[in-house]
Sequence to fold (902 residues):
Amino acid sequence: MIPTTARPGDFVEVHLTRQIYVGTLLESSEKGIVLLKLESGYNIGLQKKDVLEIKVLKKYSEKKTEVDMKKEGKKPNIAMIITGGTIAARLNPRKGGVDWLDTPESLFKFYPEIFEKVNVLKVEIPFMKASEDMDFKDWQKIAKTAEKLLNDENIKGIIITHGTDFLHYTSAALSFFLKDLNKPVVLTYSQRSIDRASSDADLNLQCSALVAISDIAEVMLVGHATSNDDFCYAMPGTKVRKLHTSKRDAFKVVNSKPFAKIFPDRIDKVSEYNVRNKNKVKLDSAFEEKVALVKIYPGQEPEILDYYLKKKYKGIVLEMAGLGHIPTKRARLGWTKKLKEVQDKGLIVCATAQTIFGRLDPLVYSNGRELLETGIIYLEDMLSETALVKLGWILGHKEWAKDKNKVKELMLKNFSRELNDRLE
Amino acid sequence: MELDYKKLGLKCGLEIHQQLDTNKLFCNCPSVLRSDEPDFIVKRKLHVVAGESGEIDVAVKHEMEKDRGFIYQGYDTICLVELDEEPPHLINQEALKIALQISILLNSKIFPLTQIMRKVVIDGSNTSGFQRTILIARDGFVETSFGRVGIDTICLEEDAARIVSREKNNVVYRLDRLGIPLVEIATAPDIKTPEQAKEVALHIGNILRSCKVKRGIGTIRQDVNLSIKKGERIEIKGFQDIRNVERAIKIEIERQKKLVEEGKSVGEVRNVLSDGTTEFLRPLPGAARMYPETDLPLLKISRQITDEVRKNLPQLRGDVQKELIKEGLNEDMIRLLFKQNKLEEFREFVKVLNNPKLIAKIILVWPREISKREKISLEKVESVLEDNLNEILEKVSKKKISENEIKEILTKLVKGEDLKKAVSIKKENLNVLEERIIKLIKEKPGLGINAYMGLIMREFSGKVNGKEVRDIIERNLR
Fold:
């Protein structure tokens, strides 16, 4: 191929031995391939080795469009924290990469509807990441940004847009990190990319805007209640889990109820929540990184726990079967002895349910009682993911971490609705 | 008055959409249309976003209506893919191969590397807000008695959901049709007269029917693109019957002639009405409504696949007809064979029993006869036939039953007897059976009925009816 000055976006002629194609040159993610948008709009690929020459007919020039944001004094002010994920990513086929929606203008272009209800006074971007790439340090950054915005009296509430995969970990973390919460903290997402007219982001954001200016002073996740585009749920940040890989209503409340049903134009209260108040929010985001979540499976060797001790882990959440069972002395590979041993060496061991739904009860069967006697902290109906985050948070406080009884007491104390003593 | 099309500068091209007879294009749901009550409904809205260039396509803009809702009717034959709740699966290979067959039969050049595109459609007929479409081939042709007509492009795409009703703020769609593979053939604007348009449509139709495509009303749809000198391009959609093409073109040319004279010709999409006249549907779409399907990789159509398809091309209908006549079928039978779309079945059965005339009669005529005489639905008869005919024919070819008995056996099956029973009596001549039983009783006198039964049943290993055997033994023991 003759060297070419053609760049993605240029209108070009691509010469092959027996054929000339005219179209817009695109960036190709695959090596050795020239991607071309034909005038009909279809894209085709051409092997670079077959291309003789690419002639530029017209260079690409970016069109800048002015956006009128419709800012009005009368509408309530909110702030947004944008962290990445599908809801803030837009594929740019010309570049082959992702464009982030990271300015109020770009948001407005995609979601004009939220601006009808509220003024987006501030947009903060602590980082841009897919949620599966986040860890506790990112939760701390979001919490810090949120604290500042929540203590700004010009702002009625905040919306945090976030990827879905690990969203429920972030929502649990913020529930513990933001003490004395005064205003709504809304986390929302999209499961369908925002370039398509069917994106769930539209309803999720409209409902989020309504919740952000409501009187619900909780950390909550707002998203589709069903596959329909009619209403969302506002779900408690510690009691929610992604339960489907792709559906709009992937997030479900587990062992609790949503706070409210959110329609684009009204809120129907479902259960009790803390109301808006004049507190000053305090950031409390200490975190112990050396915590783990382990799912127990049939035939698993208890020696795996030695690894965590060796790696200086301070706490571990075991996701157990049924009411809180794993193999005991009567089984070929019993865990009882090893559990006693690692706890004697200082590892905090908590138990949650693999079944996701329901409460643990180690007293029903003899093997449960045997496990309980080793000192395991059975976390009632707490979600495994929430338990992991809470354990990291509790152990992050040195004054608590040094005393196992204190840790147990706090793990079983309700900080942010993570425990529910009446399951319906 | 006959118009002088040459003088008018008529340029006309056809766009033909044909459903393929496979499962859906991007999921494994069956392509069946439903007329029963839906199992569930889903309510959705679509909202338009600006494309990559920041502009909204004119055709898309036209479809925009604020606060319009869509109600989708779903069935147990619909999965999360049609509901826009799961990413598309990899493309249906069978549908792709049929599209390649059609491309080759239309002398087109296949793109070895192409991208699955999303064409923005926000009238609600696609739950996703777009239709997936793939450019498969280009630059083919068909020969007509008026000269060669080029085939510009051949695309493989998903069919849209069917509209059921329009309510005040809602449009109701049924999801059964959404995702059925559709081949779109666009001819070049080489067609010079309405008569030629009809010929091209018929010719392409013949080629399509030689491949594995759906048959019947609604499975093939034609659009016409036309312009006359100084006029803009008009697209007329929605022909279900080829006979209307010619008439509608003539009427539209008259309309265009007037508009051009008044300087009012505008490019647009129009819908054909039953009387051949047309009504405005929407503006012509541009390239701005297409962007890549990012959930799927580039589609590579390897030389290997193309070669395989080339080796297994279906015969065209004319050639098949000649062969069938050679095999002894008359024209009525051949017509029925095509009409009932049973060529493949016919071929399969002839392999089992080489009697083409009989096979044709069995699969084309008998089901209707039996259905009528026994007052049992044709579907039931056909399904019994489908389940059992192969085995029956095998037995005939092994001379275990005679050709004359087939109809009686089929009738028994349709009435609910199982195959073993229906055939058993025929399998063994009862006289032979009785002779054997008499001989057995002589050889081994003094045994009980059950012992004789056991011996005989073992010997004839299920080819005989137990009750029949017992009767004969009892009779001979007396």
